[in-house]
Amino acid sequence: MTYVDIVTALALLQFMVFGFRVGKARGRYGVAAPAIAGNEIFERYFRVQQNTLEQLIVFLPALYVFSHYYSPLVAAALGAVYLIGREIYAATYVKDPKKRELGYVLTALPVAILLLGGLVGAIRQLK
Amino acid sequence: MTYVDIVTALALLQFMVFGFRVGKARGRYGVAAPAIAGNEIFERYFRVQQNTLEQLIVFLPALYVFSHYYSPLVAAALGAVYLIGREIYAATYVKDPKKRELGYVLTALPVAILLLGGLVGAIRQLK
Amino acid sequence: MTYVDIVTALALLQFMVFGFRVGKARGRYGVAAPAIAGNEIFERYFRVQQNTLEQLIVFLPALYVFSHYYSPLVAAALGAVYLIGREIYAATYVKDPKKRELGYVLTALPVAILLLGGLVGAIRQLK
User: Fold this and answer.
1) Number of helices followed by number of strands (H, E) in chain B
2) How far is C117 from chain B (nearest CA, A)?
3) C-beta neighbour count of B121 within 10 angstroms
4) Conformational region of residue C30, where left means phi above 0, alpha means psi within -120 to 50, and beta covers everything else
5) Which percentage of chain C shows pLDDT scores above 70?
6) What is the Cα–Cα distance from B86 to A110, expressed in whole angstroms?
7) Chain A CA closest to residue C40
8) At how many degrees (to 10) do helices A101-126 and A72-95 cross?
9) CA–CA separation, B49 and B46 (whole Å)
């Protein structure tokens, strides 16, 4: 499970970096808390962080359930794809939200495989 | 813990479906990213997803802590109530946000029982 | 791990309380669902809850990874700092968002220590 823990920590670190960028964007584009709208570029940084939160809440439990019923190494490899996909997602979304598809798919796909794999693994255990 | 893992995977799958509906509502109601407001119906789909995220962050850890100190089977049964409650919540919220109470209670109640049960179980362990 | 489970349950309970306050603020400041903006004070309560969600998604996994590679007792102590920091954050943010720094640092710092400690612990295990 060590590889899975490392992937977990890297995914959380990545999310914290996205959060720091939102804080910096508040200053640069003049969006004072508690506002979360008012400047298009700020909103892009904010949505990158929020969408990553929505992915993480599925990714992390799915990673561990998949690891439990299948291979932790395969889980960690799928997690590596997720990490790269999120970097692409963040970079493209900030430039142009319409070009976020590739990065989105490269995170949603490993997440879906981990989740469905974990579900099937658990159900097969019941027999 | 197999039943608990299955409930976990189903709750995450449900959340992903709520997320896909937000994506579809973006197109149908003309709310392009990064905006998250501007059309009332889109905002309902968005709030269903966001509120489910707020529930999941409590539900999943509480499910496992409760399972650890009490019965995984009781935890999974409370999880089944959560799943049904969320379906009712999503269906009613999109029709009329004022009618979201029943679905909300049917998710918040099992979550509260899992959380407080887990807390009491852990504290009793200390003695 | 009992102390870690207690800290987990307390952090989730704290988050649920922040959520109830958002619900009450909806009524008091006249912000009906699905809106999440329109009144500055309501938005402060809302942002306290949302920012706590963003912290929790990192805090909880980091707490367990750190516990696994180092001491659960040190993890729980860092978790206690997080809990106090969040209370300060919530109290100051609602009064004046500009004064949220201290509370923010007192949560982000233990979270960062747990996360980086857990990552280093896992990487050292690989050798």
Assistant:
1) 4, 0
2) 21
3) 19
4) left
5) 100
6) 25
7) A34
8) 150
9) 5
**Tokens 């720091």 -> residue:** A20
Closest CA to C48 of C7, C87, C78, C5: C87
CB within 8 Å: C57 and A9: no
- How far is Cα C6 from Cα B113, in angstroms, rounded to an integer? 15
Q: C96 with C82: CB under 8 angstroms?
A: no
- Confirm or reject contact between C62 and chain A (CB < 8 A): yes
- What's the half-sphere exposure (Cβ side, CA atoms, 13 Å) at B96? 4
How far apart (Å, rounded) are the C-alpha atoms in residues C14 and C87? 8
Give the pLDDT score at C11: 98
Contact between C87 and C35 (Cβ < 8 Å): no
B-chain CB neighbours of C56 within 8 Å are: 57
A23: contact with B, CB 8 A cutoff: no
Compute how many other C-beta atoms are within 10 angstroms of the C-beta atom of residue C79: 26
Q: Is B126 on the interface with A (CB under 8 A)?
A: no
| Residue C44 · residue C93 · CB < 8 Å | yes
Q: How far apart are CA B102 and CA B104, in angstroms?
A: 5
User: Residues of chain A whose pLDDT is less than 50?
Assistant: none
Q: How confident is the model at residue B1 (pLDDT cuts 50, 70, 90)?
A: confident
Distance CA B43, CA C111 (A): 32
* Cα–Cα distance for residue pair B99/B92, rounded to 1 Å: 6
Q: Name every chain B residue with its beta carbon within 8 A of the beta carbon of C57.
A: 57
